Amino acid sequence: VQLQASGGGLVQAGGSLRLSCTASRRTFSNNGVGWFRQAPGKEREFVGGINWRGGSILYADSVKGRFTISRDNTGSTVYLQMNSLKPEDTAVYFCAAHTSAYASRQKEGYRYWGQGTLVTVSS
Predict the structure, then answer these.
(1) CB–CB of 63/49 below 8 Å?
(2) Which H/E stretch holds residue 74?
(3) I need a surface site. Which of 49, 93, 111, 120 has the fewest CB within 10 A?
(4) What residues pair up with 97 in beta bridges, in sequence order?
């Protein structure tokens, strides 16, 4: 599975962006998918994740209530809707497919990683 995150850009604080994670070669409809982010000089951190059916979704406390994860019915795209963005949300955002049908908060469970997309939030 090859993954590609897209949709990043520059936005003012309080604005919104929607990121997309698409799969090529095959779908990730049977995998949990996670979103992570990495700010300059910091560790990559968990943002949120969704299981293969979309019924169970996890969020980091720092984004809960502002970010929403969803996936389309084809199993080929997962979205991260980001609202009320803050300067501290600035980072490169990555999507990843888990080895199982469920997402987890730990990086170690994810086998396939996409190239990231940069999100910059100005104050």
Answers:
(1) no
(2) none
(3) 111
(4) 33, 112
